[in-house]
Write a structure and sequence with these properties.
The chain is of the alpha+beta class. The chain contains 13 helices and 20 strands. Helix 1 (43-51) crosses helix 2 (128-140), helix 8 packs across helix 13 (439-455) and helix 10 packs across helix 11. It is globular.
Length: 490
């Protein structure tokens, strides 16, 4: 019999006082022993930003919440932040590693900062309190704003105390049945696919063909659950489930993760945004700059209000009701061997310009980010690829109501008289302006607008009222059960 193998791990927490603050120095896997409410969640990143050499960075961990992307970039030779393709107006810096500035070489050598700070140092044990004091001094500085001016336009909220305060604001809004929160599916969906949704957690709801907060309230009311008594635990326990046409689960998500909400804390100018179960902090000046940059893009669309429940049906109706309209929804003009790409959903003439309209019946950040990117990619392909232009010309000829319509639209495109219009179908009134879009969607659109400016192509944003009649929930049909000893039909 083999000898038994034993395994052990050792660790320690060393608490050091410096500058009327207490530092926890972790040896081994001991950080999890700290209370979540006990430490400064931006300490490590801020110390690193203040002491790292901006030209000797070696690693970045970033996330792009609007598009739900995460990325780690490493380089062999220290470089500046631009080499890491970091965009401070759309990405969140989660961790940074690099060599420190020469003036801190006696304190640290290399440093990594996130919530905590990790570093190598020549400091002797008896000098650790002095080291902690200098780290505290670095934390209290704002020197980083010169070297990294845009790095904290957006920052994740990790402090449990602040999160609790924000959750309380969210709950107060839900309990009053405010129209401010939105209920969305927290992932990118193909709305050409058919799915139904239902709520779980207070019994099983009826099946719905779309997702709205009012339907969630309706479900709670049908189960005798008072909205005024909702708690944070309720939002985590209750679920939204998506099902395919053949009754297969498409996804299941806590209600809390499905909510989108903006809030401000008393005494602060910052704006907080809840998306996919995470809170983010936006500097108010930054949000103002984004809103001002996007305001000129708004216009009233010539496309009609939406009375259809499906995007494809609305696109067909909109093409018929606009001047020289052509429905190009679910077509493909990309060259052979490349990923399928629609030129737009509806192509029409407005003011002697060919308008490529991209439509989305959703205000979810991930859906809108995809829409904005799709519009930019389609226009870039049209302007740079001969095969795509030829393929689009054939589509226009095939889809136009008459040969005259096809000729007129094509002549505008050939003359370079084209622009893009993003059409958002929503229950929100157009008077809400750019704030009808979630914060991350505004950021994504602002970045896309710069792309169109570089191409010298006009881009606009329009809100179209969703006036389709409400669709009532339906009971889930029961599948026939096979009798004992009798095979069920396939």
């Amino acid at each position: 019999m083999a000898d038994p193998l034993t395994q052990s791990t050792k660790g320690a927490l060393l608490f050091v006082t410096a500058g009327k603050r207490t530092f926890a120095i972790c040896f081994g896997n001991t950080a999890h022993n700290l209370e979540n409410e006990s430490y400064e969640y931006d300490f490590g990143l801020r110390v690193t930003l203040n002491c790292v050499d901006p030209d000797k960075l070696k690693n970045t961990d970033v996330s792009e919440p609007g598009a739900a992307r995460r990325q780690r970039t490493q380089v062999a030779v220290g470089s500046d932040l631009t080499y890491f393709d970091f965009e401070g107006d759309s990405k969140v810096l989660r961790s940074l590693t690099g060599a420190v500035k020469p003036e801190f070489s006696d304190l640290l050598r290399n440093v990594t900062g996130s919530s905590n700070v990790r570093f190598t140092s020549p400091t002797r044990a008896q000098d650790i309190p002095a080291l902690c004091g200098r780290l505290l001094d670095l934390y209290n500085r704002d020197d980083y704003k010169k070297s990294f001016p845009d790095v904290q336009n957006i920052s994740p909220v990790r402090d449990p105390v602040v999160i609790d305060q924000l959750d309380d604001l969210l709950l107060a809004s839900l309990r009053s049945k405010s129209t401010d929160p939105l209920l969305t599916v927290p992932e990118l969906l193909d709305f050409n696919d058919t799915f139904v949704a239902r709520f779980l957690g207070e019994g099983t709801s009826l099946l719905y063909s779309d997702v709205y907060l009012s339907l969630y309230y309706e479900h709670l009311n049908s189960r005798g659950v008072a909205v005024t008594g909702l708690t944070r635990d309720d939002l985590s326990r209750q679920k939204l489930e998506l099902l395919t046409e053949d009754d297969q689960r498409r996804g299941i998500y806590p209600i809390y993760k499905c909510l989108v909400y903006d809030a401000s804390l008393p005494g602060e100018t910052a704006i907080y945004h809840l998306m996919e179960g995470n809170w983010y902090r936006f500097e108010s000046d930054y949000v103002t700059r984004i809103n001002n940059a996007l305001a000129p893009l708004l216009r009233t669309s010539v496309m009609p209000p939406c009375t259809a429940h499906e995007e494809k049906d609305y696109n067909q109706a909109a093409a018929l009701s606009t001047t020289n309209g052509i429905c190009l929804d679910r077509t493909n003009f990309s060259p052979q061997g490349q990923t399928q790409l629609e030129p737009c959903d509806v192509l029409f003439e407005a003011g002697a310009v060919a308008v490529f309209a991209h439509v989305k019946m959703s205000t979810a950040s991930a859906d809108l980010s995809h829409l904005f990117n799709q519009g930019a990619n389609a226009m870039e392909l049209l302007r740079t690829n001969d095969d795509a232009r030829d393929k689009l010309a054939r589509l226009i000829t095939a889809k136009a109501a008459t040969g005259g319509v096809a000729t007129r639209i094509q002549s505008l495109i050939d003359a370079g008289k084209s622009e893009v219009e993003y059409v958002i179908v929503t229950h929100k009134p157009a008077s809400g302006g750019i704030e009808n879009l979630p914060l991350f969607s505004r950021i994504s659109l602002n970045r896309t607008a710069r792309t169109f400016k570089a191409m010298a192509v006009g881009v606009h944003l329009a809100f179209v009222l969703d006036s389709a009649p409400d669709r009532k929930g339906v009971a889930k049909p029961r599948k026939p059960r096979a009798r004992k000893g009798v095979a069920a039909a396939g």
